[in-house]
Amino acid sequence: MHNAWLRFAAVSESGRGLRGRTAVAGVGETTYYKRGQSTDPEFVLVVKAILAACEDAGINPREIDGFCSYSNDRNTPARLANALGLEELRYSNMQWGGGGGGAAAVVQNAASAVHAGSANVVVAYRGLAQGQFGRFGQGGRRPAVRGEFAYTLPYGVMSPAQMYAMRTTRLMWEHGIDRSAMRAVALAAYHHAQNNPRAVMYGRPLDAETYDSSRWITEPFRLYDCCLENDGGAAMIVTSAERAADLSDTPVLVLAAQQSGGHRSGAWVHNPTDYATSSFKLGAQHLYEQAGVTPDDVDVVQSYENFTGAVVMSLIEHGLCTYENANEVLTFENLRADGGSIPLNTSGGNLAECYMHGLGMQIEAVRQVRGDSTNQVPNVNVSLSNAGPMVEIASTAIYGTAEVLG
Amino acid sequence: MSSLAEGTYLPEGLTQPAPMRDGMDAPYWEGTREHELRVQRCADCGTHQWGPDWVCHACQSLNVEWVTVEPTARIYSWQRVHHPVHPALADHGPYIVVLVELPHADNLRMIGNLLGDPMQDIVIGSDVEAVFEDHDNGSPPYTLVHWQVAGS
User: Fold this and answer.
1) Which residues of A touch B15 (CB under 8 A)?
2) Looking at the domain assignment, is residue B13 inside a domain?
3) Cβ-based contacts of B21 with chain A (< 8 Å)
4) Structural domain tally of chain B?
5) For residue A60, is it within any domain?
6) Bridge partners of B17?
7) Which stretches of chain A drop beneath a pLDDT of 70?
């Protein structure tokens, strides 16, 4: 740990870092659909989201000169540049890894490109229409599989829930984490979705009894511990802090954005050195160091729910509660935007707004800084949003106001 | 060490395993056919390693060997799968997946099914022993490694 802290300090002293150099000038999303119900092709969803983000920012789409996405997004920068009429494409970037591990990394990558002068207006985006391209939650249909999956698929470990359940079992066993903490995460998400007309679960509230009686997907996950599957598109416009200040009196600064993996976090067949982890133990420390804030400064949190157990890990590893007090702190009352001490997943998140591989949760973190969330927390200056807990490379970001820079 | 008396733990029709085309993990799959549990061990630093890789993760040596280890372990984590995601499992009912660790091989971890009653209580830390499940009709033929509570 000592050596790790020296490393963090070195970054700060060198004067490098993203803190306040770039901003999210605009955000946009399409209608969010249940899986398979999009009336638009996936590519059109992405274009619509980008156009919405440009309109939100007050930027002509032809000013875009860079694209960042993740999870092998099918909608390539070259095709988007054609469709949007770009005169010049200066930067494109794909974050490796499946799932939503890249949802904050795309902001890091876009902000890094802007800060480096590689491009001026970079879009971070994600489009999903599983009905058109196949589902995540379905097992492999190939007759034979080689490599890592040869050690899992034949034993019935196929879906994301099945791939990640055992980390949560181990977390609960090692640290005495109660199901009540996981239930509180689900209840908070559904509670917030009832105020968010964009949410797929808008008008469909969840109570504790329904959660407790819901069917097992795979123990320890019940139905409501698992994220949705949806169709839609989402986009964020990242540009320099100076340009953002021209566009808005209250620009939303990127205070920090960080990828996060630990020792052998990608080791095959569930062999990371540290197993019951969200993969944020190191990245969260870099995050706070870069942003120049502490966990106590965080006003509101979007914590990516692939599964509720991972949110518990993520909150602990971001220093927002501890292994020892998680059962007491992670209650529905504490996680609500209306009066809670750790307002969590205020759009409904991946459980109840939409599973846009977490990019919607980055957008919600930006909205909380702007003050236009449907579950607005008062006086937000520091807004945290993480992505893809438990995957090999997760990511996490902090957005905030210029006030934080002092 | 024992073999399944009859049948297989999960129904036929699931995706079958095959060795990697570059040969990296062929010794493991060949070992299972002989009902031996083979894992990697670094010839330079002696660290056991799983999953397989060309490089020792402990000392970065390329001199990684295969050794046969005692097919025993203890339960490190588990899940009981209720919701099937493959047509072959549609009417099968719950099944148990365990992550086991091998204390005699640097606590490397392996995945298998836990044999016996699918609704049995599962206790982390329990000693388990390997059970080799042959699939002679596979293409290529293969053998899975399951686990059962020791002495059961």
Assistant:
1) 139-145, 149, 153-154
2) no
3) 146
4) 1
5) yes
6) A145
7) 1-15, 133-141
Alpha helices (H) in A88-159, listed in sequence order: 105-116, 130-133
A142 assigned to some structural domain: no
Signed CA dihedral, A52, A57, A59, A61: sign only: negative
- Classify A198 in phi/psi space as left (phi over 0), alpha (psi -120 to 50) or beta: alpha
ipTM of predicted complex:
0.96
- Report yes or no on A34 lying in a domain: yes
Instruction: Estimate to the nearest angstrom the gap between the alpha carbon of B61 and the chain centroid.
Output: 25
Q: Which CATH number is A235's domain given?
A: 3.40.47.10
Domain assignment present for A112: yes
Tens digits of residue pLDDT in A218-271: 999 999 999 999 999 999 999 999 999 999 999 999 999 999 999 999 999 999
- Has residue B124 been placed in a domain? yes
Q: Assess B95–A contact: CB distance below 8 Å, yes or no.
A: yes
- Residue B41 lies in domain: 20-149
Q: Quick check: is B14 in a domain? A: no
Q: Which domain holds residue A88?
A: 18-134+226-398
Are A275 and B77 inside 8 Å of each other by CB? yes
Instruction: Strands of A171-310 (E only): list them.
Output: 216-219, 221-222, 230-240, 252-260, 300-303
> Do strands B16-17 and B142-149 pair parallel, antiparallel, or not at all (unpaired)?
unpaired
Q: What's the structural domain count of chain A?
A: 1
B55 interfacial to chain A (CB closer than 8 Å): no
Instruction: Quote the percentage of chain A above a pLDDT of 70.
Output: 94
Query: Is residue A66 reached through a cis peptide bond, with omega within 30 degrees of 0 on the bond before it?
Result: no
